[in-house]
Amino acid sequence: MSATNNLSKSVATLTGIGAQTAHRLEKLGIRVVQDLLFHLPHRYEDRTRVTPIGSLTAGMSALIKGTIEFTDMLPKGRSSLICRISDGSGFITLKFFHYTASQHNLFKPGTVISCFAEARFGYAGLEMVHPEYKILSDPEQDVTDSRLTPVYPLTEGLNQHQLRKAIKQALALCNADLADWIPESVLKQFSYPSLSEAIQTLHAPDESVSVEALQNGRVPALKRLAFEELLTHHLTLQQTRYKTKAWQAPVFIRDPISSTHFLNSLPFHLTGAQQRVIADIEADFKHAHPMMRLVQGDVGSGKTVVAAYAAMLALSAGYQVAVMAPTELLAEQHFRNFTGWFDSFDTQVLFLTGNIKGNARKIALQALADGSAGIIIGTHALFQEAVTFNRLGLIIIDEQHRFGVHQRMALREKGQQGGIRPHQLVMTATPIPRTLAMLQYSDLDISIIDELPPGRQPVVTSVIPNERRDEVVERINNWVTKKKQVYWVCTLIEESEVLQCQAAEKTAEYLMQALPNVRIGLIHGRMKSAEKDAIMQAFKQHNVDLLVATTVIEVGVDVPNAGLMIIENPERLGLSQLHQLRGRVGRGSDASFCLLMYQSPLSDTARHRLGVLRDSNDGFVIAEKDLELRGPGEVMGTRQTGQMQFKIADLSRDADLLDSITQIGEQFFINSPHAIQPLIDRWLGHATEYSEV
Length: 693
Ligand code: ADP
Ligand code: MG
What we know:
This protein is α/β, with parallel strands linked by helices. Helix content is 41%, strand content 18%. It has 28 helices and 22 strands. The structure holds adenosine-5'-diphosphate and magnesium ion.
C-alpha cells in the first residue's frame, strides 16, 4: 500500500487511537491521517536550552536547572509546598498546592532539579507554580530536547500527549509522498520548502527555528502553507468564474432611443464614474456569457441609477429583471425609484415580498410568468419562492455584503432557461480592501464608482461622550428650528432585535420629554412593513423632524433634508457599518453633521477607531483602517462570508502574500490545471458546495 493511501486512511488505523479518540478528533475536523498533518501547533515550548534563572522575566516559559536551597510547607489556607532553587545566576521559588509526602522527601536541599513552566511574579519574587520537573541523580545530565515541543489546539477529552503521539505516526507516513501541488518554480521563487519539509518543520522544529519566529508566522514553512491555503481559496473562486464564463447568456445591445430617453428623463447628469461603470456593463452585455459584475461605490455615490440603466438595457432587449435588496425598506425604496424611472416605459414594475398575499400575489406572479411585468423588486425571498419568470435576463443584487458568497453562488443557477442564464450585477457600499477583494470577490469583475455626485459636502463628524447628552439635545432643538431633520440611531451590542427595539423605544420616549416641540418618529426592525413604510413616508414628507431608529436604516434610505445624525454607542459597531449609517446624511447640498456619542470610558483602540471616522469620509480609507485595527476576521465577519475561515492562514499576518496569489493563480490555470481540484479537496474538504450550489 502506498504512503498516499496511508494518508487517506482513517485516523483509527493509527496505534493508540480507538473509536472514542477518533470521534473526538473529528470535532477538530480530523478524520484521515493527512488531516493530522495539517493540524498545526498553535504554540511551541522551548526546552532546547536551559535558561539561567537570573535572566528569567515574568511571563517567560523556560527550562531551568538549579539546586534546592530549602523546602518548606505553608500551612496557611491550603497547605502548599514551596521550594527555593538557585543556579548561581539567581533564585526562584517553586510552588505546589497539592503534593505528596514522597515529593516532600525528594525535595531535599542540595538536590539538583530541572523544571519547565511559566515564571510569574509571586509573593517572594519570581515563582513557578506546578512546574513540570525532573529530579536529577546526575547534576550534569542533559535535560534539553533537540526540538521545540509542539502544543496543539485540543478539544474536550483529548490531551497533548495523545495528539503528539498520533501526529508523530502521521509524520512517519508523510515523507515525500504527500503530493506537493505547488510547482518547483514557485517554491524557488519564494524560497519555500517542499510541503513535507514544511509540515515536518512545523510539527517538530529543530533548534535552528526560534519560537518567536514561529509564533509570528515568519518561518518559510508556515508561509508556504498559508500561501497554499490562500491560493486555493482564490483558485476556487477563479474556477467558478471560468465556469460561468462558459455559460450562455442573452446579448443586450444598447438601443439608442431607449437609452437617450432614459437618461433625459433623469433629474441629473450621470457622473463620470457612473458613465464609466455603465460602459463596463454595456461591454459585458455584448457577450453571450453571463456578466458577473460587482459595482463598489461609497454610500450616496449613485449605484441605484446605474443598476436601473442596466435594467433598461435588458428590458429593451425583451428580457425581465429581478432586483434583490437585503431589507424590505430598501426594496420599497428601489421600487419607488424604479417605478418613477420606468414610468414612461411600456412595462410593469412589481414589488413582491412575503407580505403580499392572496389575489394580489396571484396577479403579480401571473404578470411575471406571462412577461407583462418587466421588473420585479423584492428581498431575497424572491428567489426562495415559486416565482416563475417569462424571460429573466438580469439579476441585480443590492448591498451584496449582506448576502453571503454562498447565496450569490446559489443564485447563479436560478433563472436559467434552456441553458441560457441571466446576467448578474451586484452592488456594495462596503468597500473591501483590494487585498481582501481578491479572496472574496475574485469570481466577479469589479467596477468602482469613485466619485460622488457634484455638490456633496463631506459630513462633519465629532466624537463626544454620553455625558454631554444635554448639549446634543439642545443642538437637535436648534437644528429642527431651522426646518431641518435629524436621525438618532440606537445601537446595541446584542444581536437581539427585541432588545435593540426596546432601547430605541426608550430613547424615543426620553427625547419626546426632552424635546416637546419636536415631532418624533420611531422605526425599528420589529415593526410591520406597512408601519415602517408609513413612518418613512412621514419622515420623507417632513411630517416627522426626528427619526429614532435602530440600525435598520443602515442601508438605502434617502432623505436629503436630514443633515444631522446622532449615533449612540458607536463604539459597538464596525467602522464600515458606521460609515454606512453616516452616509444617510450629507445627501443634500448643505453641510451636514454626525455626532458619535460614546459611552465613556472609551478604550484606546475604540478612541482611535472613532478618530478614523471623524477624520475621513472615504469609505476605502475607512475600510483599510478598519482592517488594520480590527483584523480581517472581524472585518469580514463569518456571518457575512460563510467561507472566510482559514485553517492556517491569518490575513493580518499573511496579507503580504495576497499580491502574488492572483498572479500565481493565473499561471495555475495554464500550467497546472490538474492540481486545482486536489488542492481544493485538501484545503476546503470536499466542500465544492460554494461553486456548485
Ligand atoms: P447609493 O450608491 O448609496 O445606493 P443612491 O443610488 O441611493 O446611492 O443615490 C444617492 C442619491 O444620489 C439619490 O438621491 C440619487 O437619486 C442621487 N444621484 C445619483 N446619481 C446622481 C448624479 N449623477 N447627480 C446627482 N444626484 C445623483
Ligand atoms: Mg444603495
